[in-house]
Hints:
mainly alpha; 10 helices; BscR_C; Homeodomain-like_sf; DNA binding; HTH-type_Tx_Regulator
Amino acid sequence: MRPLDSVKQEKIIQSVFVITGKHGLAGVNIAGISKTAGVGAGTLYTYFKSKEDIVQAAYASVEDKMTQKMYAQFDSSLPVKQSLKQIYINMLNYRLNHYDETVFIDQYIQSNYIQLNFSRQMDEFEHQNKPLYDLLKKGQQEGIIKILAPIMLISFFDGAVRSCSTGIVQKLFPLKQQVLDDCFDLLWRGITQ
């Protein structure tokens, strides 16, 4: 048996993002994935067992890429506010530059797909985002960040980034430094003592 073509596999995963960006996660189906990826339906089953398997692979792919970008230039020795703003800007940039992927991730998190491997995904999420968990804990120990469950703070943080990026994409407000600073300031005031 010859090895699987990683380029073809990536096209299949990317097609899920394209379809979700245009039609939502509910619009993802084998025929659409096959057409968008430019591969036969039979070929899809060479790489993945089912549509659910493709969607799970797409989630893992985007979660890994997003997490890597999130912590670019992250320095835990900097003050909490400065470190948190770097993560915020990184997440915002990723969302603005990868719109279809972020539409997918947002809809995936709100769908039944997340329940298929929820415990494992939460463990991976906590592992991948240890720097953010540690940063929030540091802020709590310094008396800066409110004493709330880390997942609650992270959910609020994520929601703030999502809202800002959506506002920019929908042209509710412009992509300007002052807007980014104001949006971060709102987030900061929401999580600090």
